[in-house]
Design a protein that fits this description.
With 336 residues, this protein is of the alpha/beta class. The protein is built from twelve helices and 14 strands. Belongs to the LDH/MDH superfamily. MDH type 2 family.
Length: 336
Amino acid sequence: KNEPVRVCVTGAAGQLAYSLLLNLARGVVFGEDTPVILQLLDINPGMESLNGVRMELEDSALPLLAGVVCTSDPEVAFTGAQAAIFLGAMPRRPGMERSDLLKANAKIFREQGEAMNRVASPDIKCVVVGNPANTNALILSKYAPRVPKENITALTRLDANRARNQIALRAGVSVDRTLDVLIWGNHSATQYPDVSHATIVCAETGARRPVSEVITDTEWLHGEFIETVQQRGAAILAARKLSSAMSAAKAVADHMRDWWMGSEREGELVSMAVPSDGSYGIAEGLIFSFPVRCPGGGKYEIVQGLEISDFSRGKLQKTEAELISERDEALACVAA
Ligand code: NAX
């Protein structure tokens, strides 16, 4: 067995964590030879419930679970952490203005960034899930200057998985035969689910055909498909009266596993919201969902040189504009 990995999970008493924690302790994310120590953070009112989660984890008799820490102190939760999953955030309540939401979350991510900066492993890999995820990640990064910028990412893998599912359903193939379906931009309704570079794999020969050859209804691809993916979170919320948790937990595990150990298929394009380096003309520093490749060993690279049609360019600009305005508003909040 390897040395245990210390994994901090914030918002650990919540419903997303309840679906996620077992996967973290089962080897699917950090490897089957790698024990984990779970360092679970929530706020004081969540401590009793979090203790119940700890008991359940222990009762699961997991050989890879090398320890569980439950705390409401960010410094304890981030001590020595090599990976962190940020689920805890202030939810939007009825009547709450967007600026109030940004302000409350900017405060949380500033405090956690500062604590992480002081006590975490300097090579910690972070994925922010709590909304507004991209902008929360940006604030986190600002207050954790010791952590390399590229180590702070946000989750758009759930959106990408949703998009793959829609394509698979429409093409009548299993989801594993859809490849390189992308999400660009913000994890919000302006995200751009893009199939221009996606392919469908032939079950017999393994040959790949562009999605646009298999699904020839461009109107659907440019319209209903995009809207369905953009609105999927709202559809689940309306049906369950709770936001997506099972699928979100699966997506977090996909994101972190690909980053830590490499993607399932060598060379495949996956979507991660990462700090923009100016690729595709996107403003530098924004936490923007790009196509990336994950070769393993805790590395990823933004894929260069994909052709961007005029249709795609318009969508990219729209989601970029939203992220710029969120960034400016959140930065103004933390400065105030
Ligand atoms: P829950 O409300 O069930 O859980 C959130 C937990 O965070 C609670 O236990 C709460 O006490 C805790 N918390 C609040 N403030 C905290 C703080 N300052 N420090 C530590 N913990 C804190 O929400 P859940 O359904 O688990 O969702 C978690 C987050 O994921 C939400 O922000 C949600 O909007 C977001 N989502 C993001 C998705 C994505 O793709 N990026 C998809 C799923 C999900 O909707």
